Amino acid sequence: MIEFIPPAFIYILGALLVPLLRGRVKSAYMLILPIISFFFLISTQVGTAWEIDFLGFDLVPFKVDRLSLVFGYIFHLISVIGIIYTLSIRSDLEYVAGLVYAGSALGVVFAGDLFTFFVFWEMLTVSALWLIWAKRTKASQAAGFRYLMVHVFGGLVLLAGIIMYISEQKSISLGFIGLHSPATYCIFIGMGINAAWPLLHTWLTDAYPESTVGGAVFLSAFTTKTAVYALARTFPGTEPLIWIGAVMTAFPIFFAVIENDMRRVLSYSLINQVGFMMVGIGIGTELSINGAAAHAFAHILYKSLLFMSMGAVIFRTGKINATDLGGLYKSMPWTALFCSIGAASISAFPLTSGFVSKSMVLDAAAHGHMSIIWLTLLFASAGVFHHSGIKIPFFAFFSHDAGHRVKEAPPSMLIAMGIAAFFCIFLGVYPKFLYSILPYPVDFVPYTAPHVLSQLQLLMFSALAFTLLLRSGIYPAEIRAINLDTDLIYRKGGRLFYQVMDKGLNAFNSAAEQVFVGKFLVHVTNHVKRLPATLLAKICWPFWKTAFDAPDRKTISENLLKRAQSGFYPIAIMGLFAAIYFSLLFLL
Amino acid sequence: MQMDTEKKHIFDSKKNVHLVLYGLFGSLILLLALEPFIHKHPYFAWEEWFGFYAIYGFVACVLLVLAAKYILRPFVKREEDYYD
């Protein structure tokens, strides 16, 4: 009797049946998969571990502890929401890729050894790729390839690190690693690429806006948060993470302010939010790890809600640039409402999920007396309200009316957004629910009078700044343009490399061809062609000069050459006759 | 709010927009007025300054926008077909 099936198996094997089913059966089947998986999960005890002996190593394909459970729960919840959202899209490719992708993320989260971890980690990349390619545009195809290249690179760095680490430790068990050797640095960076660290982040802002309407919802939830989990598992309390995280919270908001593509704005703010989690992991106290996990949980919900609302906008209007949008609250009021709830949550308004999770990280930084970090995080908090909290809903749904008169989003999309919006508020109003599933016991009270007041002051005065800047015309107008980022290095750099290789190697090739084939070989063959004649002329000239009354040497040489080319040498004929004569003598 | 295109929508009238703005200004004043009555538990000295969060939020956003507009944008802005 099977007592338990790991979620990853249910998702990934279950996904394979999806294309065989039709209509409502398919919809029901896809919704039941995560629910069955969830019931299996809540029936397991913390501390459960499967061990299999494999080539002398202990494989642990499934292991449950409180840290993995937080991520396990939210991954189940968001996959249900994501599936409901995509029901009206009807694309088997996206369904299968989405389920395999979610399953791989669950595989990573419940992996107890480095081998299982790495296999699922790579499956995450491969399945995510199809959510980008499924859009079937030239841009998405190119972005998908760049996504693949960056993640294959990251995967190889991680693999190199893991192999070195295993040979150092003589064990493949997955636990605290910490920075201490080249192997651990490789693992750290490999994970960091998936966490979209600064300078390594452009795969995210490049690919997510090019993915499908539903694909972006899945993508925003899994890859970076799996990396957050992995870093929380293996590198808690690693100081560089604090600084990496602080930079991550601050720099993307500048790009978000001037970005025109709304889903790219959300991608930048995704990096900003993951930055808070990095800081939490880097500080490494119980409060801060709790904060990172809680923030990941809350973030997945409100970020996917925002991606869902922008996806609905694309689904109905076909547009996503701020320059093409505006006034949509008139035709898509529910989407506007849900988007605003997501925007309030990401901005951490009191009574929303962001407020009860982000403040844990800020408090942990304050506890550690990290004043620069704390001020940076506070700046980023104001900034995220500015671009995600106000800019997204304002330019899409309010602002100047762009004249779109479309239908409201389809019911399945509205239901999915409604569920996510419900959880955004539910977690904010009843934080105990979230706190009860965190890795460590929580003694943190988010709702104190000074905390609520200070947060409201921060946000409302940010709103004042936005209002004044907008009304005075200083606020940067949305422009049809793109903004360079570090992907310039490989997008133009790749082309430069290609051109250098093209000019360099092909020029060498053609030069070699000209010199060797065009000149040298022609010379040699010419020479070889003339060689018997010239040699003969050289050798025989002294004799001929005396023996014959020859016209001159040049004519003789030319005659010899002609004969050489036709194979008609006087000497050869004489030789032939001589040979015949001698053979006749011999035979007779 | 219905989908009727002929219908006047809530923010089509200037009055409602002004109402939102007055609401914002009113809440700002209220938030500052409440501050003296709230007992703070500061970690840092500057948290005790009156209106620290309000000023920080305002200044942060103004600087953010100005830096993005006047410093970052001139460096990174390109035509939409730049990479094609």
Key terms for this structure?
heterodimer; A: 588 residues; mainly alpha; two-stranded antiparallel ribbon; 21 helices; 3% strand; elongated; B: 84 residues; 2 helices; 55% helix; flat; disordered N terminus
Describe this structure in words.
The complex is a heterodimer of chains A (588) and B (84). By secondary structure, chain A is an all-alpha fold. Chain A is 74% helix and 3% strand. In chain A, strand 1 (49-54) and strand 2 (57-63) form a beta hairpin. The radius of gyration of chain A is 35 Å and the shape is elongated. Chain B has 84 residues and is mainly alpha-helical. Chain B has helices spanning 14-34, 52-76, and one strand at 77-78.
Element layout with pairings:
The complex is a heterodimer of chains A (588) and B (84).
Chain A: H1 7-17, H2 23-42, E1 49-54, E2 57-63, H3 66-86, H4 92-109, H5 114-133, H6 138-169, H7 182-194, H8 202-207, H9 215-234, H10 239-258, H11 262-283, H12 286-317, H13 333-346, H14 353-367, H15 371-397, H16 411-429, H17 431-436, H18 449-472, E3 482-483, H19 487-547, H20 553-566, H21 570-587
Antiparallel strand pairs in A: 1-2
Helix pairs in contact in A: 1-2, 1-4, 2-3, 3-4, 3-9, 3-12, 3-16, 4-5, 4-9, 5-6, 5-9, 6-7, 7-9, 9-11, 9-12, 10-11, 10-15, 11-12, 11-14, 11-15, 12-13, 12-14, 12-16, 13-15, 13-16, 14-15, 14-16, 15-18, 19-20
Chain B: H1 14-34, H2 52-76, E1 77-78
